[in-house]
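New to this. Please check this protein:
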Amino acid sequence: MATDQQTPRPTSAGVSARPALGDPDRPAVEFRDIQIAYGKFVAVRDFSLSIAKGSFVTLLGPSGCGKTTILRSIAGLVDISSGQISIGGRRVDDVPIYKRNIGLVFQSYALFPHKTVFDNVAFGLKYRNVPKADIARKVGQALAMVRLPGSEKKLPSQLSGGQQQRIALARAIVFEPEVLLLDEPLSALDANMREEMRVEIKKIQKATGITALFVTHDQEEALSMSDRIVVMNAGSMEQIGTPQEVYETPATAFVADFLGKANMLPGTVATADGVRAKVALAAGQSVEVVSPRPLSQGTAVTVVVRPQKLFVGSATAGNRLSGRVVSTSYLGGSAIYEIDLGDKTIVRANNAIAGPLAHEGETVELGFDPRGCVLLDGKGLRIA
């Protein structure tokens, strides 16, 4: 399982290796060897992560994986059992929440129903004893940024769900926090509003340059919004990387399955010639693959193919598989097919529509490029 490095080394922007003490480019947020336990139950174990200033990092995973617990720990809403949390190089795991200079946006909006929009947004500024003239100016700027100028006198009940979430976002950024924490902020919105708010939150984050830590179980949100994604499983980090890295090259079977529901084809290396190999699948057919390193005959592997890279009726050179269509889902510009390869092996193909749809019961050919897959070893780890 992936963890943050313990010694500095070059990495790409967004999540970096730990800098030396006193480095002016120290991370905006740093978790060092965090463990959070409730009695004998360990919710988060050995979690280390550095987040660069101005980046948008997402904790992604199923319910109960520890992602919200990690976010709440930096907010001061959950105590850590061991380890260290720093913001801007300052240790905060023993600092009260009101002294951490963080902005919070929750799924439930958490607006004061009896207060006007102005008073909701101004709450944090008044708490910090900001002068009245500055409060009015800052509230106006924040409302303009979330595209709700002139709404100062309205009550939350007079706003739509999307507008209330914009007000919650304005309240979180108005005092210019060091870090913005977003805990499943879009899950209460309908599909169209979620898509609109994804774009808005990312625009505001880029415009302000604020560092954002986002929690979601929605892979589409994570892929579309993030600079880096941290995939969580059972309290530990499975993989960290750009959206393209974690999607195209999943590090474990869990990541491959959770992020995008990849096709997992177990088999055994039948023949090998350098990095090229033929794999005899459990389903009874064979495919050719290109491995990052030479494989030995008889090695157990799992061939991972994304649905978008498995083409129905394709003339793509390379692998050819035959199967029977179990179901077809028409999506307008594309279709999702479920296809039985035999031995109860069902695969999914998500293809753009370029001709007549294949229908249930029809026998079809499938194709994928030998380089268009990822190989996992017998332990479910990517072969690299």
Notes: Residues 41 and 264 are 31 Å apart (CA to CA).
